[in-house]
Amino acid sequence: MLVEQLLRPYGANKFEIVEKKGLGHPDTLCDGISDAISRSLSKYYIDHFGHILHHNVDKVLLIGGRSRPEFGGGEILRPLAIVIGGRATDDADGTKIPVNDIAKEATEKFLKKTVNNLNGHFTVEPRIGMGSTELRSLVGRVVANDTSIGLGYAPLSHLEENVTKIEPLMRSVKGVGEDVKIMGIRKGNGIQLTMASAIVSKYIEDMEQYNDTKRKVEEKVLGYVTPGWADVSAIVNNADKGEDIYLTVTGTSAEMGDDGETGRGNRPNGLITPGRPMTMEATAGKNPVSHVGKLYNIAANRMAAEIAAFDGVEEAYVYLVSRIGAPLEEPQIKSASIYGKANEKKIEAVIDYWLEHIPDITEDFVKGRL
Amino acid sequence: MLVEQLLRPYGANKFEIVEKKGLGHPDTLCDGISDAISRSLSKYYIDHFGHILHHNVDKVLLIGGRSRPEFGGGEILRPLAIVIGGRATDDADGTKIPVNDIAKEATEKFLKKTVNNLNGHFTVEPRIGMGSTELRSLVGRVVANDTSIGLGYAPLSHLEENVTKIEPLMRSVKGVGEDVKIMGIRKGNGIQLTMASAIVSKYIEDMEQYNDTKRKVEEKVLGYVTPGWADVSAIVNNADKGEDIYLTVTGTSAEMGDDGETGRGNRPNGLITPGRPMTMEATAGKNPVSHVGKLYNIAANRMAAEIAAFDGVEEAYVYLVSRIGAPLEEPQIKSASIYGKANEKKIEAVIDYWLEHIPDITEDFVKGRL
Amino acid sequence: MLVEQLLRPYGANKFEIVEKKGLGHPDTLCDGISDAISRSLSKYYIDHFGHILHHNVDKVLLIGGRSRPEFGGGEILRPLAIVIGGRATDDADGTKIPVNDIAKEATEKFLKKTVNNLNGHFTVEPRIGMGSTELRSLVGRVVANDTSIGLGYAPLSHLEENVTKIEPLMRSVKGVGEDVKIMGIRKGNGIQLTMASAIVSKYIEDMEQYNDTKRKVEEKVLGYVTPGWADVSAIVNNADKGEDIYLTVTGTSAEMGDDGETGRGNRPNGLITPGRPMTMEATAGKNPVSHVGKLYNIAANRMAAEIAAFDGVEEAYVYLVSRIGAPLEEPQIKSASIYGKANEKKIEAVIDYWLEHIPDITEDFVKGRL
Amino acid sequence: MLVEQLLRPYGANKFEIVEKKGLGHPDTLCDGISDAISRSLSKYYIDHFGHILHHNVDKVLLIGGRSRPEFGGGEILRPLAIVIGGRATDDADGTKIPVNDIAKEATEKFLKKTVNNLNGHFTVEPRIGMGSTELRSLVGRVVANDTSIGLGYAPLSHLEENVTKIEPLMRSVKGVGEDVKIMGIRKGNGIQLTMASAIVSKYIEDMEQYNDTKRKVEEKVLGYVTPGWADVSAIVNNADKGEDIYLTVTGTSAEMGDDGETGRGNRPNGLITPGRPMTMEATAGKNPVSHVGKLYNIAANRMAAEIAAFDGVEEAYVYLVSRIGAPLEEPQIKSASIYGKANEKKIEAVIDYWLEHIPDITEDFVKGRL
């Protein structure tokens, strides 16, 4: 156990950059599909075999469609195609498991629930393979399946909190689709919010209403964040030029050629924070029993949150690195960076507690509580 | 222009984590394919139209195959499938461009050149779409096509340098395939190197020779790094257990179900460094003319290298954020973090120089000099 | 050369059955796509290499889409998917040939030209492979590439002529799509015409207009055929029941799940005639230089037509069977069945003439004159 | 009911042509897969819902692979791809049916059982869609789902019988694969048998053994047929030239680019007989409850067999044409052609009997007794 003392908290930096891809962004959709499939598979495995069998569906590719949006309507010319890579156990003690159909149904349900105006304009191509035999069963051997990094921090900075809240706020404006994106920049005590919103054509009659909708988003965002900052600018769809605007039939840019992939968007805390420690691991779609790339990242965020709640601690980062083949509770590195006064024993206790309670994370995931 | 003074250099941290996915790792292969296609398209566009037309092929999905490796031989049961998403201009002034065939050929050449024992055991499915009309031509308007983050730092830490060099070293041992992976951890002045090496079955007669090969890799790596550290451990294929070893027909785990995606592996400097500032942008496959997600990241690394070379500067980080629709040389944020003594004017001069010389980066990319 | 004397002409049979799948029927579309690709490839090969190289694209699968037709409009929910199997030379003396792009473009042009209201609602998946090396070049060796049967007859019966003419007649009624189908039955001197017509929803306001359109088709058909028969019945879309009618957005049933395949529809003379000699060969998509399955069927129809034009010959059938590896002009069987008085020498002269003039058929095909 | 008197039996013709594609021919494999899927679906529907639900999987496309056969071994470079089109009910009263997984499993089992040396070298892509709602349930309404033709005849000619028996005979020679093909030609009282046999490389050491194997096939076939004919010639793999021989790794030409499609090969009686009445209907894969295109063809063959067994009848052909929307037992045409003395009442009685016993055919199909 290593504990590093930080010399300056993150919020004291002169500048800060935070990005968030919204619920309907193609990359976020791929993450959502990966997790929906993993959750459905896990439930099926538990129902039929008593425990979760090996799977890893963290490789979803969304191939964008083609659309012809127009004020008051428009149409989809070519639907989105969802190609599902990855692996899953499809045969347990000779019993066949309809892996591809489970994946297809989970994808369909997820997209129906998540993108209001998508209306079935997508195809699903499950191409899930089978892993090597020795990986297929997880019974009684919860050891790390890879050498992976887990990482978390707490608390969110003021800007990070704002960006987190702005995302659903933008989507609550009538006519705004699920595909929004926010780039938040802080310079000193002022912030710039550059936002993109896919506007849904059927709710918008003409250019005037389109511009009204953008203005409403800006006003709502400004109304929400203004009190906290010395200076705020907020702008929506800055690339609009003449007729060339961000109008969509479905509310996601995936309808017109924007592709997505699992693991390319927000990190496990829902943000992209280039100035903070970040993991490259895709947590979405990895199985919640043995896949340290998923479990350590979720765990590290919980650990950091508890440590940051200690009296005297202002900021906490937790780093874990697994040892392939070793039990999950025995990482090859566990360390923390702290701004503030820290009792090392207490920090280690928190980390060890969560390492031993990883099965709780598994259960929370399967029950959809994450 | 904002310059931040750092209070401690990276190397003074108590611990450090660096990961590198080798040349034949499924994610690295996808990056390589994306860039090979982008380079081929760029050349074709230049040859036929005088300038590079819009394209973005940063979405490649590699679906792993199935194999039956055995000492001295083995066979591929199902080849790898390469699904190529993304967009590219396929019609310029009424002239059709064979986009999918260019992509297919570039992929085939790249894989042939990169994975020695793959022997054509793969299929290519180009599914490249066309972007919305207004994006197709780039003539005379090199403005940012998105709000993206670029980021670079210099110099590499001692561990980062070691990990960078170890990768080709491992592959130089006879019998080792292109798919290697290194996780490097530093605690104080000691390091642990956890390595994975896909061993190529046809070069290996039996278990003894397999173990010999692993030992040779460890020895070669130890021989190389030992002088610099107080304490070094190096281990290869730690998950091997009995008959269950990392033996492959082709030298890449993609042959047996390990999938890959563009943008999921190494960052633009060839490493994954969770404790350092990192970008989530996939640079591979993005067009080298207007795609800031590619250009700013390459530029920021060059800027950081020049700044770190100043007298009195020990470490430099550069951050850029583009403004969608604005010229590339006018980012909405340009800032640097410095450990050492820095003349702000000189730092800004370096950054501005490279912002104005982005076309040089484009050319270097097309000519394969990056 | 064998000549058989028939004892009764076809038209003297008590009954007769003839089927014709119209221009926009899924199977006919697949035939059309196969031939469009073969024609485009042939032109490309001639332009670039001076002669036609080996190809065979007689395996096209059309996977039907999903639609929601409604009076006055409706929409396509999932487009048709065209999967193109087969083989073609893609490398000649080291020069690469963009086979898949040629196939894609030919398919797109064909569908655009053929189905008026399809509006791009389809995807194309070219999956053309390469044949074994020795087949790739056809230079100087026009020998049969298989043991295949060619077969033709003349003249068409009265019913067959009627059915041939009815197909475009049906499609000339406003609101009728390209996907029509005719089953013609003759019992003695009376005929029953059972017809199906995909009605295009955007031209039809309500059920009344739908029924009007069906009536117009029936009237037009009856007006055309009535003079020739003692008794005629004609009915369109007999399966309509209440709201359950044959309404489509695009004018082809392929929009809602009806699949098609090359070689499953009309025979080379445009008809399905179960009581007449018929070949199972798909002529569509086969290369027009060495593929006897295509050439012998076209040739046999021409031979039969010329023989049937002899004085004293009322009906002629020609049968050819190739000998694999032998020159095209040396079939292992050439025979004819004749009703009427026939001079065997003259019959053989006609057959031999066409066997020696097969290159004319090749040229007619490439120039689109068939 | 129409009965036509034939003036000459088929066997009295001067010549005759019969073709048979063997068990492992790509087209026959597609037919087999279609029927295997239909049988599996039917069983699943019966087990779970008490009766067979709507499906039609008569559109299978086999895309050939790529191989490198060599004496004593060789390898598969790219596996066969099986694309499964068609439609099936996947939702009954809210219960989901794993249609694609059933199709995949049925395909895998069928290929494993049918092609001995295929060893899993294939991929399966189920792309089965759902039909329009009104077609999904078949409960209580066994009416014709299309206007289709059914056709059968009996008995087989002497040549037809020979060709039928030769197919398994060829495959019984060691080293011969499942993909065989026979073209049988009769001229007067002599026959020519042109045969193709895919030879399996692992059983064959060199060119001598290859030629031995061909000779054995020829001898076995000649030994079997010789007594019945005045003159017989039999030749295997006539296209062999030097090194260019018909050697395969798996025993089917599908391994090296030969594609296949359902419905393109043998007719319901297992033969292609261009000089006889033939149907173009694919019977394979069509549902065995309402799909007249399947049922009428099977029924017509049974009817013809019973009629041909009457005293005084030498040859019988039965023709049926369904009326879409009408009960299966009420075709719009039922007729027979007879050589010999026929009691029309008895003929009609046989036809009516089988029209009323179509459910027996359904059951025989599901139980695999056809």
Automatic annotation (TrEMBL), chains A, B, C, D:
Pfam families: AdoMet_Synthase. It comes from the Archaea. InterPro entries: AdoMet_synthase_2_family (IPR027790), AdoMet_synthase_3 (IPR042544). PANTHER family: S-ADENOSYLMETHIONINE SYNTHASE. This is S-adenosylmethionine synthetase. It comes from Methanocella paludicola (strain DSM 17711 / JCM 13418 / NBRC 101707 / SANAE).
